[in-house]
Na+/H+ antiporter subunit E
Amino acid sequence: MTGRRWQAWAWRLTALALLWWALSAGDPRAWAWGLPVIVVTAGLMPPPGAWRWRLLAALTFLPHALWLSLRGGLQVAGLACRRQLALDTRVIEYPWQQLPEGPARLFMASLLNLVPGTLTLRLSQDALHVHVLHYQDDTPGSLRRLERRIARLYGVAQHREASP
Protein backbone atom coordinates (compact mmCIF):
# COMPACT_ATOMS: atom_id res chain seq x y z
CA MET A 1 0.00 0.00 0.00
CA THR A 2 1.36 3.42 -0.89
CA GLY A 3 1.72 6.13 1.73
CA ARG A 4 -1.36 8.01 0.55
CA ARG A 5 -3.52 4.88 0.41
CA TRP A 6 -2.31 3.83 3.85
CA GLN A 7 -3.16 7.26 5.26
CA ALA A 8 -6.63 7.21 3.64
CA TRP A 9 -7.26 3.72 5.04
CA ALA A 10 -6.18 4.86 8.52
CA TRP A 11 -8.56 7.85 8.34
CA ARG A 12 -11.40 5.57 7.25
CA LEU A 13 -10.68 3.19 10.11
CA THR A 14 -10.70 6.09 12.55
CA ALA A 15 -13.92 7.60 11.19
CA LEU A 16 -15.71 4.24 11.08
CA ALA A 17 -14.49 3.38 14.60
CA LEU A 18 -15.79 6.70 15.94
CA LEU A 19 -19.10 6.11 14.22
CA TRP A 20 -19.29 2.60 15.67
CA TRP A 21 -18.40 3.87 19.13
CA ALA A 22 -21.22 6.44 18.91
CA LEU A 23 -23.76 3.92 17.58
CA SER A 24 -22.87 1.31 20.18
CA ALA A 25 -22.90 3.89 22.99
CA GLY A 26 -19.32 2.95 23.82
CA ASP A 27 -20.23 -0.61 24.85
CA PRO A 28 -16.95 -2.60 24.82
CA ARG A 29 -18.82 -5.84 24.01
CA ALA A 30 -19.94 -4.37 20.67
CA TRP A 31 -16.34 -4.26 19.43
CA ALA A 32 -16.13 -8.07 19.18
CA TRP A 33 -18.09 -8.04 15.95
CA GLY A 34 -17.90 -4.32 15.18
CA LEU A 35 -14.13 -4.26 14.67
CA PRO A 36 -14.06 -6.92 11.91
CA VAL A 37 -16.89 -5.11 10.10
CA ILE A 38 -15.03 -1.80 10.38
CA VAL A 39 -11.81 -3.30 8.96
CA VAL A 40 -13.63 -4.99 6.05
CA THR A 41 -15.68 -1.86 5.29
CA ALA A 42 -12.60 0.36 5.28
CA GLY A 43 -10.84 -2.10 2.99
CA LEU A 44 -13.72 -2.28 0.51
CA MET A 45 -14.18 1.46 0.15
CA PRO A 46 -12.88 2.86 -3.16
CA PRO A 47 -9.36 4.31 -3.19
CA PRO A 48 -8.89 8.05 -2.72
CA GLY A 49 -9.75 10.00 -5.83
CA ALA A 50 -11.73 7.13 -7.43
CA TRP A 51 -14.85 9.25 -7.19
CA ARG A 52 -15.96 12.27 -5.31
CA TRP A 53 -19.36 13.73 -4.71
CA ARG A 54 -19.73 17.44 -5.15
CA LEU A 55 -20.92 18.91 -1.85
CA LEU A 56 -23.51 21.35 -3.21
CA ALA A 57 -24.88 18.71 -5.59
CA ALA A 58 -25.11 16.23 -2.69
CA LEU A 59 -27.01 18.75 -0.57
CA THR A 60 -29.53 19.32 -3.36
CA PHE A 61 -29.67 15.63 -4.28
CA LEU A 62 -30.62 14.33 -0.82
CA PRO A 63 -34.09 15.97 -0.72
CA HIS A 64 -34.69 14.74 -4.26
CA ALA A 65 -33.78 11.15 -3.31
CA LEU A 66 -36.07 11.33 -0.28
CA TRP A 67 -38.86 12.73 -2.46
CA LEU A 68 -38.40 9.86 -4.96
CA SER A 69 -38.77 7.35 -2.17
CA LEU A 70 -41.79 9.06 -0.62
CA ARG A 71 -43.53 9.54 -3.97
CA GLY A 72 -42.89 5.93 -4.96
CA GLY A 73 -44.17 4.68 -1.62
CA LEU A 74 -47.35 6.75 -1.90
CA GLN A 75 -47.90 5.55 -5.45
CA VAL A 76 -47.51 1.89 -4.46
CA ALA A 77 -49.75 2.38 -1.41
CA GLY A 78 -52.38 4.04 -3.61
CA LEU A 79 -52.25 1.17 -6.07
CA ALA A 80 -52.55 -1.38 -3.25
CA CYS A 81 -55.63 0.35 -1.81
CA ARG A 82 -57.58 0.27 -5.08
CA ARG A 83 -60.28 -2.31 -5.52
CA GLN A 84 -58.93 -3.31 -8.90
CA LEU A 85 -55.25 -2.98 -9.59
CA ALA A 86 -54.59 -1.00 -12.72
CA LEU A 87 -50.93 -1.84 -13.01
CA ASP A 88 -48.91 -1.25 -16.11
CA THR A 89 -45.78 -3.25 -15.37
CA ARG A 90 -42.99 -3.02 -17.89
CA VAL A 91 -39.33 -3.67 -18.29
CA ILE A 92 -37.67 -0.53 -19.57
CA GLU A 93 -34.34 -0.46 -21.34
CA TYR A 94 -32.91 2.94 -20.48
CA PRO A 95 -29.88 3.81 -22.64
CA TRP A 96 -27.11 5.61 -20.77
CA GLN A 97 -26.90 9.26 -21.79
CA GLN A 98 -24.26 10.83 -19.54
CA LEU A 99 -22.91 8.56 -16.84
CA PRO A 100 -19.63 6.78 -17.55
CA GLU A 101 -19.10 3.20 -16.44
CA GLY A 102 -18.28 2.92 -12.78
CA PRO A 103 -19.57 4.15 -9.44
CA ALA A 104 -22.07 6.70 -10.79
CA ARG A 105 -23.95 4.08 -12.82
CA LEU A 106 -23.89 1.66 -9.94
CA PHE A 107 -25.23 4.39 -7.66
CA MET A 108 -28.15 5.09 -10.02
CA ALA A 109 -28.97 1.38 -10.34
CA SER A 110 -28.87 0.96 -6.56
CA LEU A 111 -30.93 4.09 -5.91
CA LEU A 112 -33.68 2.83 -8.22
CA ASN A 113 -33.93 -0.31 -6.08
CA LEU A 114 -34.74 1.90 -3.10
CA VAL A 115 -37.61 3.64 -4.90
CA PRO A 116 -40.82 1.68 -4.34
CA GLY A 117 -42.27 0.34 -7.59
CA THR A 118 -38.92 0.08 -9.41
CA LEU A 119 -36.31 -2.64 -9.56
CA THR A 120 -33.03 -2.68 -11.44
CA LEU A 121 -32.84 -5.92 -13.37
CA ARG A 122 -29.59 -5.53 -15.26
CA LEU A 123 -26.81 -3.02 -15.58
CA SER A 124 -25.01 -3.25 -18.92
CA GLN A 125 -22.46 -1.14 -20.74
CA ASP A 126 -25.11 0.39 -22.99
CA ALA A 127 -28.27 0.48 -20.90
CA LEU A 128 -30.00 0.06 -17.58
CA HIS A 129 -32.85 -2.46 -17.52
CA VAL A 130 -35.51 -1.52 -14.98
CA HIS A 131 -38.78 -3.21 -13.99
CA VAL A 132 -41.44 -0.59 -13.34
CA LEU A 133 -44.61 -1.49 -11.43
CA HIS A 134 -46.69 1.34 -12.89
CA TYR A 135 -45.39 2.78 -16.15
CA GLN A 136 -46.25 6.38 -16.95
CA ASP A 137 -45.54 8.40 -20.09
CA ASP A 138 -42.89 10.38 -18.22
CA THR A 139 -41.03 7.36 -16.81
CA PRO A 140 -38.15 7.59 -19.35
CA GLY A 141 -37.98 11.36 -18.75
CA SER A 142 -37.77 10.74 -15.00
CA LEU A 143 -34.86 8.39 -15.54
CA ARG A 144 -33.11 10.99 -17.74
CA ARG A 145 -33.57 13.67 -15.08
CA LEU A 146 -32.29 11.32 -12.38
CA GLU A 147 -29.24 10.50 -14.50
CA ARG A 148 -28.52 14.22 -14.94
CA ARG A 149 -28.75 14.80 -11.19
CA ILE A 150 -26.39 11.91 -10.52
CA ALA A 151 -24.01 13.23 -13.20
CA ARG A 152 -23.93 16.56 -11.32
CA LEU A 153 -23.47 14.71 -8.03
CA TYR A 154 -20.39 12.95 -9.40
CA GLY A 155 -19.13 15.98 -11.28
CA VAL A 156 -19.51 14.33 -14.68
CA ALA A 157 -19.28 16.85 -17.50
CA GLN A 158 -22.51 17.21 -19.43
CA HIS A 159 -21.42 15.77 -22.78
CA ARG A 160 -24.72 16.34 -24.45
CA GLU A 161 -27.96 17.69 -23.19
CA ALA A 162 -30.71 15.13 -23.58
CA SER A 163 -34.23 16.30 -24.20
CA PRO A 164 -36.44 16.48 -21.07
Observations:
- Helices lie at 3-23, 31-44, 55-81, 103-114, 139-154.
- Residues 160-164 have pLDDT under 50 and may be disordered.
- Residues 3-44 form one domain.
- The beta strands are 90-95, 118-123, 127-132.
